[in-house]
Request: fold
Amino acid sequence: MLSRVYDALPLKVERAHGVRISTDKGEFLDTFAGIGVLAFGHTDEKTIEAIKEKIGRFSHTSNYFLDEDAISLSQMLLNMSCGEGEVFFTNSGTEATEAAIKAIRKLRRGKLVSFEGNFHGRTMGALSLTHSPKLRTPFEPLLPDSIFLPLSGRVFEEFARNNEIAGVFVEPVQGNSGVYPLPEELIEAISSMKEKYGFLIVADEIQSGLCRTGDFFAYQHHDLRVDIITVGKAVGGGLPLGAAIFCGVRPFAIGDHGSTFAPNPVSLAAGKSVVERMDTTLLEGVKIKGEHLRLGIEKLAWVKEIRGRGLMLGLSTHDPVRIKEKAFDRGVLLNVTGGSIRLLPALNISIDEIDEILERLDFGG
Ligand SMILES: Cc1ncc(COP(=O)(O)O)c(C=O)c1O
Reply:
């Protein structure tokens, strides 16, 4: 039998396309796109074509072979972020965090700082920087020299004055905690202390990156110079892929880090077909649709608070699980995390589809 770590929906999926999933219990509108993975929705034609084309030629070769798609996808990621640098591909988000940790350890001495509410993955290194005590404490001891600070610029500044910091992990919009954008004053404090002490900054963009918030990466909404950007989820076009993007730092030499599978050639082709369509037109659409969705949600009586940016929204409500069940009965799939409802729909969702979702989520009262 399967390890019982997931609480799966009581559905058998038959087919899925765009934001619609056909199941043994009828059709549903999907508001979370495989947890923010499917930027262009289910069974996106261009992605399927790219997958078929690549897998028909080869599916795995190992790192003894150079894949042209790795070069082009890494260049696309650099063009969207710091322009120049290098990219290390992984199979998942948590492995991208591991790569960032190893890079920092190689380059600098000192503490690894994370913040209350941050989520960076579940492997032992990443878990050391994932705040949730429920996820973390059963597996302690974890990495030494990793620490969590409250979301306060003043506390961070004091810590930076009194401790040697190697790296600071920010999750610009904390996704798994319920979609909380980091306070601006904390970002400013991190930025000004970096000038003084030179620690490395990692932006975890595994969930918030790749156009999700209306910019290529969520850190770009702020004046923040980052050294490492981690990506996952959408970067593989629905197949497993992650990456650590190194900006102005060159942590790894031959043999320093590696993986049998990463980057998988088919994941690269799928990812390339998605990332090459991530342009300013898509960003504009995300902003417009995000605003439309937000305005519609504001009218729903059961919503107490809305947070987030673009098409990454968190909704507080009295009983999120009950709302999730009511939505299910009306054919809408909602995701509950960190005690909030988290919306991460496909970035190409249409205004009509948003309206259909909003209509079904209007329970009156
Ligand atoms: C911000 C963030 N970091 C890291 C991860 C870990 O990614 P993965 O589940 O691919 O290991 C996630 C996954 O939800 C995430 O949202």
Residues 47-275 form a domain with the Aspartate Aminotransferase; domain 2 fold (CATH 3.40.640.10).
